[in-house]
Each structure stands twice: as structure tokens, then as C-alpha cells.
Design brief:
mainly alpha, Hypothetical protein af1432, 7 strands, 44% helix, globular, Phosphohydrolase, Cyclic_di-GMP/3'3'-cGAMP_PDE, HD/PDEase_dom, hydrolase, phosphoric diester hydrolase activity
């Protein structure tokens, strides 16, 4: 008898791949989706939620920025602080993401995290100005985790905050920006060191590397070996990867990468691990490949995605 294959698995994979392609367009947020997903999972587990809810929230953490596919590259990769007009465009991404998910068979599982991760407890967030318990469990948790990762990540116009300082910022905004009870739990976890292996990483054990020329993130994955050539997708600079024991660094060669070198890459090994973990607890009653939804997105955005 053939081994059982969860029919939700290809659906989950289609969501992870699409989100990863969106992230690959942004030179400054390498690993953001993985980190938010991990923070969300840890917080949900600490809160005593059942495994299927933990899996759902973790998946929502990975998908939350799906709508950024509609944001122009010039805004996503801008080195300076955004103008009011540019910020208004950025603020459309929760609704765009929600619309993209609307026809997907798993939309009911992940939709709240996508559309509500910028809502705030005091009702001053976007897109709908929800307040308090109007914001779903998923939206409340992913909102905290997304904000924490934004604070602890380096941007062209500022260095990332320390874990301690970012936690203090969340403490200061309890009951205003963030759900008070879930924020307290998050602060407890952070203070106990549960996030140290995630902050500044793009996957387990892989630290983020800044381009020595222009600053954006050079994402290193476990498949890369010592001496491999890696590239900054913002300025095109080539670097040699230096791996010694647990230490990772990059050394600029002075050369530029070709168009092929600078193509967005998906870390399929990481995605396969995430899909495998999610599919343990997420299931559907009717087999559905999700290929129609995926095909529509490929046509709509003219993205060259892996087959």
C-alpha cells in the first residue's frame, strides 16, 4: 500500500513558494518571512495553543507580506526613508495579499494574518482600523513578531536594534500597538533568550551577511560552501563566501555578477522543511492541487517561478 500523502501538501508548497518569490525581490529583508514564522510558532506554542493552530499561525507568519508583490522595486529597495506617497503604496499590501489569497483553498486558514498584521490594539492601524478583540489571534501574534523583526533588522538608514531594546519598545507599546497579553508572553520569551538563534539569521544556523559595498543583505543558505561566489542583488557585487567552523563572512572580489547570477533564488531545501512541518497539522478534505490559483498568479504578475 502506498504511503499516505497529505493532499494539502502541494497547496501549502504553492503558498510558501509564492511568498518566497515576493521576498526575493527585496534586497533588504532576506530571511524576514522565515524569522517572523519562527517567532510566531514559538509564541503560539508558549501560549499553549494546539498544534494545528500553531501550524496555522506559523504559516500565516510566513505569508503575511504576500501583497508586497504589487509594490514597485524602486520602493521596496529604496535606501532612504519613504515619502508619504510611497508609504501609502506600501500600506496597500495587506489588502492586496488578501485578494491574492481569496481563491486559494487555504485562504481561510491564513487570511487573517495577511490582512491584519498591521492592525493595532488601539485601532490606529491599517487597513481597517480594527481594535482590541476585533483583531484575530493570528493577526495579533504575527503583528508582534513582524514588528520585532523589523526593529532588530538593519536597514540602509539605520542599524537594527538589540533584542533588549526592541523588547523594551514592545513593552512601551503594550495595549497601544500590541495586544497586551500576547506581548507580555513575547517579552518573556525574548528575555529568556528564545530568539537569539533567529535574530540575524536567514535559516537555522545561517547568519545574515551585509554587502560591504552597499549594505543590503546577501542571503547565504546551507547549500553554499566555503569559496562559493555569492552576490548582492542590489549593487551586483560578487563576493567569496568564507566559512570556518561556525563563522561565516563574505569577501568582495571587485567583480560584478551577470544577469543570471543576480536572478532571485528560492531556498527549496528550507521550503521543503517548512512544508513538511506544516503539513503534519494542516489538512483538507478534498484533494486540490492549487495549480489553477498558482497559474493565475504567474500570468498576472509575469513572474518566472520554478516549475
Amino acid at each position: 500500500m502506498a504511503a499516505y500523502e497529505n493532499p494539502a501538501k502541494p497547496l501549502i508548497k504553492s503558498l510558501f513558494v509564492m511568498a518566497a518569490m515576493v521576498e526575493a525581490r527585496d534586497s533588504y529583508t532576506g530571511g524576514h518571512l522565515w524569522r517572523v514564522s519562527q517567532y510566531s510558532r514559538i509564541l503560539a506554542e508558549y501560549g499553549g495553543l494546539p498544534p494545528n493552530v500553531v501550524a496555522r499561525i506559523s504559516l500565516g507568519g510566513y505569508l503575511h507580506d504576500l501583497g508586497k508583490i504589487s509594490v514597485p522595486d524602486a520602493i521596496l529597495n529604496k535606501k532612504d526613508v519613504l515619502t508619504a506617497e510611497e508609504y501609502a503604496i506600501i500600506k496597500t499590501h495587506p489588502e492586496v495579499g488578501s485578494r491574492l489569497l481569496s481563491d486559494h483553498p487555504l485562504a481561510g486558514l491564513t487570511g487573517n494574518a495577511v490582512i491584519q498584521h498591521h492592525e493595532t490594539f488601539d485601532g490606529l492601524g491599517y487597513p481597517h482600523g480594527l481594535a482590541g478583540d476585533q483583531i484575530s489571534l493570528d493577526g495579533s501574534i504575527v503583528s508582534i513578531c513582524d514588528a520585532f523583526d523589523a526593529m532588530t533588522s538593519t536597514r540602509p538608514y539605520r542599524k537594527g536594534m538589540s533584542i533588549e531594546y526592541a523588547l523594551a519598545q514592545i513593552q512601551a507599546d503594550l495595549g497601544r500597538q500590541f495586544h497586551p497579553e500576547w506581548s507580555k508572553k513575547f517579552i518573556e520569551l525574548g528575555g529568556a533568550g528564545f530568539f537569539k538563534h533567529i535574530v540575524g539569521h536567514s535559516e537555522p544556523g545561517m547568519t545574515l551577511q551585509e554587502c560591504p559595498i552597499c549594505g543590503p543583505t546577501i542571503v547565504i543558505s546551507k547549500k553554499h560552501r566555503h569559496g562559493d561566489r555569492v552576490y548582492c542583488r542590489a549593487c551586483g557585487s560578487e563576493a567569496l563566501l568564507q566559512k570556518e567552523n561556525s563563522s561565516i563572512s563574505v569577501k568582495i572580489t571587485g567583480r560584478k555578477g551577470s544577469a543570471k547570477n543576480l536572478m532571485p533564488e528560492i531556498n527549496n531545501d528550507l521550503l521543503d522543511d517548512l512544508v513538511q512541518e506544516s503539513s503534519k497539522y494542516i489538512s483538507i478534505s478534498t484533494p486540490h492541487s492549487g495549480s489553477d490559483w498558482y497559474r493565475q498568479l504567474r500570468i498576472l504578475f509575469r513572474l518566472l517561478l520554478p516549475r
